[in-house]
Design goal:
The complex is a heterodimer. By secondary structure, chain A is α/β, with parallel strands linked by helices. Chain A has 14 helices and five strands. In chain B, the strands form three sheets. A six-stranded mixed sheet of chain B has the order 5-6-7-3-8-9, sandwiched between helices. The chains are: A alpha/beta, B alpha/beta.
Amino acid sequence: MGTASHQVGVVAAREFRERARRPIYWVTTVIGILVVVALLQGPRLVGSLIHPAVTVGTVGVNPAALRSAYRASQSRHTHAPDLRVMVEPSVATAEAQVRAGQIPGFFSRSGPTLQFTGIPDPTTSLLIQTLNHRAMLAHIAPSVLAAIARAQARYSVRIRYLAPSSQELAVSLAVYGLALIIFLMVMFYGLLLAMAVVEEKESRHAEMMLSRVSALRLLWGKIAGIGGLAFLQITVWFTAALATYPSSGLTRIHVGALPVGDLFLFVLWTVIGYLEYGALYAGLAARSTHSNEIQQTTMPVTVLLMIGYFGAATALGHPGGTLRDIVMVMGYVPFLAPIAGFSLLQLGPVPWYLLAADILLQALAIWIAMRFASRLFARHLLDYRTARPRPGWLRRRTPNAP
Amino acid sequence: MVIQMEAITFSYGKQPVLEQATLEIPPGEIVGLLGLNGSGKTTTMRLIAGILTPSRGNIVRRWRRLGYLPEERGLYRKMLVRDYLAFLARLDGMTGAAARSAVGRQIERFGLEQYRGARIDSLSKGNQQKVQLAATVLSPVELLLWDEPFSGLDAMNQELLRRVVDELRAEGTAVLLSTHQIDDLEELAQRTYILADRRYHRYQPPLTPSAYIIETHQNPGWAVTTIVVAADDFADAVARLQQQAVVIRSVRPENDLKRIFRQLHDGQGEIGNGYR
């Protein structure tokens, strides 16, 4: 018999090679690349077709000056939307409109400088950039222009945020999107793992395998091989995203500035999630005799995964009070933690010692889940009868059943 | 002994399969396992392979490596024959080069040369079975558990398999053969365990039978007459039959495997001469 690592490696290599050979794997990989490219390039392409307009407010600043500055900027950006300027009666009214999401922001005077209040979108960012660079505001106080000229200042517009900055917003959206990817990857590859286990039963090959390799090693090999496929696919999609991003027209939203630490945590929580749920999916799938029973037998795992994802999403949608506390606790509960733990980044950085404790807890949970799954795996892998719908704890114990 | 099962008790839930059953397999011996459907042959194989654990009793295993052809056998049907065998050889701990060499040897031994690069699901059932048999002997093994190895093989391939069994015996490999074909066991096995009443009953072909059963008929197609003669009278009886121009259809020891098997399952079996 080979050593444990050798046998796990041989099983993993076979799982990886055989599944990577199947056309469906590459079809889904290519579809994933197309989706990534479409998400990144879509807004630019759509924008070039429908030529939208953006409305900004102004309180005490000449609208014509703003339009003139924006027109000047459009010579450099042919696909920029039209700019509409709405004169607001007061700062309070304008702020209310920004908070209601009706306008991205408004321009007003603040002492000797011009102030933009709101959340600069790509259009208003372009306008602010132009105002800064060219100081074209003929209608603002001469003293301001003189001050700019004297200082050769590049920045004449001060931005006051009424909501998270575009950068913060981008990071928050990225965390949300990556949590969704963790959820989808864990569910998709967990089910693929379940199918691999049932195929082993359907082909009646399990018995021959179990005479050569223990159930635990076989389980680890399958988890490692299919996990390798998952991470190859993620890597291909991320590479496609990185290659397409610079030409996407979204570079003013600095998604690329997502902290490297957060990306590391994304990989870490994806691995933890895959191992925790992979063990459960594989163990429960061994109770199925045919692939059409997989959904039924693995339903409890899928429900648990959904509770983790939607629970975290709901709590983070109302980040205050009890719901915030709930998501903080979920971040440490095994099987809920992979998604909730990563989503905690939306509430701010997590201290390293808490993260380390969380990872240790999850490692323990993975160990327990693997032992549990390998027992289920060994017990049901040779049972070719149709799985009964009643859960195991309601059935009479059959300690020696294969 | 390569394997010693002492007073084994095993049940599936409340359904007992074995009770105080004892079996042993000496090294280099071909041992048969005979029983009706559902009598526990497959369970015996799984217990020996360590896939199942007995409720009571002790199993002493004195082998380093085991080859197992289960009754519920399958293959990774989308793999090529050589890749599948190499995968199993690597699982046994071989290096890539050693695995390729072992695969080449067994492919030749089982006459699978022309299917080396074929996908398994393109092979006939008999050839798939030969791949499965080859998979059990990729590594040098001390004990082989073959559950119904002859089923699905044509006459030529059954002959090939008998030759392989002889080779394995010569190499010192013990083989536990489970089959419904009593003739095969009579030809190959040095001892046979018959599973009846949840126990193993050991049968060893008598070296000096006390009596023989002679089946005769007057002409081909006529009714068969069976006579039992004592061993001392056997030569005279045969001479008499030949004088009467009676055709001797078969001669076998009185306590042959078929008879003992039938007796055991009819509830007439007793531990005595020829089996225990």
